[in-house]
Amino acid sequence: QSALTQPPSASGSPGQSVTISCTGTSSDVGGYNQVSWYQQHPGKAPKRMIYEVSKRPSGVPDRFSGSKSGNTASLTVSGLQAEDEADYYCSSHAGSNNAHVVFGGGTKLTVL
Amino acid sequence: QLQLQESGPGLVKPSETLSLTCTVSGGSISSSSYHWAWIRQPPGKGLEWIGSIYYSGNTYYSPSLKSRVTISVDTSKNQFSLKLSSVTAADTAVYYCAREQASSSDSWGQGYLVTVSS
């Protein structure tokens, strides 16, 4: 069982928007602004899409955005494109005395 | 451009120790801005953070793996390494090394499959 809870699947049609949630606790997501989101295509290494809750690395389309409210972080993909179909994972800093990182179980995003 | 490359035995027997090395090129492992992490992914499953190390040798481990994990760094070779002891079939996974800053991994190796089997 993963430390952070994500829905196993999400879907949307091209051009639509979809939001993926990532729920943790006050010891991880809720306690730190260090939530990241990763995109992983089959057989490939993960690619960072969002860091520090809502920051986008250079080269990531602005169709990808992140937010957080309380113990739940969210990734929104706007203007869905076929190449957005992938697995998405959230992660967060966790632990004050024993610093570590926790991941969500992943969400399979399907572009219909 | 930073590159990370995992290497080591691809097959490990149960109860033995898994050992992997990550070679960093295109950047210095001694940078004060980054930690260096190991992350794994069992076949068909999600990502699991194993631990990370700072160039000074300070380490951070997953609470669930802490008793079996050792991460070390060799700044002279620009490498860092993972040792996971007493492995079982559940440790079969693709192992990734990554550069980490503020608990976020911005550069990843291609991944390396390690199978635990007799």
Helix content of chain A: under 10%
- Total strand segments of chain A: 9
Instruction: Note the overall shape of chain A.
Output: globular
Please tell me the overall pLDDT of chain B: 97
Q: What is the total tally of β strands of chain B?
A: 11
Describe this protein's structure:
The complex is a heterodimer of chains A (112) and B (118). In chain A, 0% of the residues lie in helices and 45% in strands. Chain A is built from no helices and nine strands. In chain A, strands 1, 3, 4, 7, 8 and 9 form a six-stranded mixed sheet that branches. Chain A is globular. Chain B has 118 residues and is mainly β. Helix content of chain B is 0%, strand content 53%. In chain B, the strands form two sheets. In chain B, strands 2, 4, 5, 6, 9, 10 and 11 form a seven-stranded mixed sheet that branches. A four-stranded antiparallel sheet of chain B has the order 1-3-8-7, with no helix packed on it. In chain B, strand 5 (48-54) and strand 6 (59-61) form a beta hairpin. Chain B is globular, with a radius of gyration of 13 Å.
